[in-house]
């Protein structure tokens, strides 16, 4: 008995209609990337394991899909030679094995897997820059739209295989890049008709400065991870978690203003200036944010809002300056639909030091869900033909095909029903495909060199010559 067909958890099939909508989003993003001067590159779907491992933290390493080497070299007399750490994993969770077992496990993994599916586009980009540094003109503005893979727990808007749409600039420390990236976000979402998004911005230096002011520099990560949960667990929950992580209760008194942080961007900048007056690092962050905010204010945004969010702490392991996150309009319940930030030495992990960069990413899958929920996809975004020519036989099909050939040269999507079957069946096919027009070309039309154009939505039918047919289908 044949097994029931299925796909791996966290992956999806896409229908023609879904692919058309996804391509509409991708094309809109791509067009605007190029409008802002970004150039396209592509990297392999899999990289050498040592390129990826250790670049995303312990949690990220666990989510990397490793590719098993071909061959059976690790079998011995029909038995797999398993290190003791594997046996430990069979009875314990990965968190409970000790360091020596973990090292042994990593060695074993290295013997059977030398490659891995890419986890994101940023680390492969850093590898690309280092490998091709003599061919690149810096500053280098690149965009990349390709799939990535993560062994994550699937949920709404989160999958194991998904596309990332990234734009990065490396080789420049200028804050004008951040200003342009805010404009790029605004331009893309405006082009998609998605008005009212909030571009949240923060700065790693501000988070470091706050930790310094309250005497918790050694607990920066614990502090920011807890602060990042403010909207989920509230002020009391955040304070409780900070105390549990060893941050003194008196330190929380100094940070109290963060829990009632409000007002305009300028108001928040003033509050931060007071809070961080004693921190040189923190004040650098304030000045950087002020520069970005002031210039964006002068240039203006079409439909987005720029907002300072001091609780924003994404990517803290490698972001060194500005941090971005884009929130969908409040009418939609959805996580972030974009994010990014400034990283001062990402290429340093591959030996190229002092190569500052900044980049942003668009969440294709979540943007799709938002556009779908708000019904923002244009009616013209469809995988279907504009018209179908009814097949009455070979003579009529040839007459129709001549018109079809000319219409396609005008970039009009049309097709001929391939078989000479009952007309009712052909109309039924067009209806199921959501094709809006049918073109009827029988003996009478051939004799008068005309076409009968039937609107399958309204039922209206008119007789036209070729120019009339072309103009009607161009609308």
UniProtKB/TrEMBL annotation:
GO terms for molecular function: ATP binding; histidine-tRNA ligase activity. Keywords: Aminoacyl-tRNA synthetase, ATP-binding, Cytoplasm, Ligase, Nucleotide-binding, Protein biosynthesis. L-histidine binds at residues 120-122, 150, 164, 168, 314, 318-319. Residues 1-418 form the Aminoacyl-transfer RNA synthetases class-II family profile domain. InterPro entries: aa-tRNA-synth_II, aa-tRNA-synth_II/BPL/LPL, Anticodon-bd, Anticodon-bd_dom_sf, His-tRNA-ligase, HisRS-like_core, HisRS/HisZ, HisRS_anticodon. Its EC number is 6.1.1.21. It catalyses: tRNA(His) + L-histidine + ATP = L-histidyl-tRNA(His) + AMP + diphosphate + H(+). GO terms for cellular component: cytoplasm. It is an enzyme of class 6 (ligase). GO terms for biological process: histidyl-tRNA aminoacylation. It comes from the Bacteria. It is found in: Cytoplasm. The keyword Repeat does not apply. Belongs to the class-II aminoacyl-tRNA synthetase family. Homodimer. This is Histidine--tRNA ligase. The gene is hisS.
């Amino acid at each position: 008995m044949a097994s029931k067909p299925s796909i791996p958890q966290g992956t999806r099939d896409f229908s023609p209609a879904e692919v058309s909508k996804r391509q509409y989003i991708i094309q809109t993003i791509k067009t605007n990337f190029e409008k802002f001067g970004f150039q396209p590159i592509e990297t392999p779907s899999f990289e050498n394991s040592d390129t990826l491992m250790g670049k995303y933290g312990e949690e990220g390493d666990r989510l990397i899909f490793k590719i098993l080497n071909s061959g059976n070299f690790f079998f011995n007399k029909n038995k797999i030679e398993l290190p003791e750490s594997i046996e430990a994993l069979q009875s314990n969770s990965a968190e409970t094995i000790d360091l020596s077992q973990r090292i042994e496990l990593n060695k074993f993994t290295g013997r059977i897997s030398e490659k891995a599916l890419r986890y994101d586009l940023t680390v492969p980009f850093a590898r690309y820059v280092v490998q091709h540094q003599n061919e690149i003109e810096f500053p280098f503005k690149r965009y990349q739209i390709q799939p990535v893979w993560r062994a994550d727990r699937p949920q709404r808007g989160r999958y194991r295989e998904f596309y990332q749409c990234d734009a990065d600039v490396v080789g420049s420390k200028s804050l004008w890049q951040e200003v342009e990236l805010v404009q790029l976000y605004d331009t893309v979402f405006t082009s998609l008709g998605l008005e009212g998004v909030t571009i949240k911005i923060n700065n790693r230096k501000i988070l470091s400065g706050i930790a310094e002011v309250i005497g918790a520099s050694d607990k920066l990560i614990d502090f920011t991870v807890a602060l990042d949960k403010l909207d989920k667990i509230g002020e009391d929950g955040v304070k409780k978690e900070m105390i549990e992580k060893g941050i003194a209760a008196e330190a929380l008194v100094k940070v109290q203003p963060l829990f009632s942080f409000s007002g305009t961007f300028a108001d928040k900048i003033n509050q931060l200036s007071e809070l961080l007056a004693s921190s040189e690092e923190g004040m650098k962050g304030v000045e950087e944010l002020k520069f970005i905010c002031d210039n964006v204010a002068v240039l203006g945004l079409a439909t987005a809002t720029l907002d300072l969010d001091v609780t924003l702490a994404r990517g803290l392991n490698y972001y060194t300056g500005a941090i971005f996150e884009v929130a969908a309009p409040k009418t939609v319940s959805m996580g972030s639909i974009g994010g990014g930030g400034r990283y001062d030495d990402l290429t340093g992990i591959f030996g190229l030091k002092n190569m500052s960069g900044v980049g942003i990413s668009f969440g294709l899958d979540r943007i799709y869900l938002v556009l779908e929920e708000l019904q923002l996809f244009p009616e013209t975004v469809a995988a279907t033909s504009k018209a179908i020519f009814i097949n009455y036989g070979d003579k009529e099909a040839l007459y129709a095909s001549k018109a079809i050939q000319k219409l396609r040269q005008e970039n009009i999507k049309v097709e001929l029903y391939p078989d000479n079957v009952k007309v009712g069946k052909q109309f039924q096919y067009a209806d199921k495909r959501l094709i809006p027009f049918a073109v009827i070309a029988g003996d009478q039309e051939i004799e008068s060199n005309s076409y009968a154009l039937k609107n399958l939505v309204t039922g209206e039918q008119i007789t036209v010559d070729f120019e009339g047919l072309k103009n009607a289908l161009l609308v």
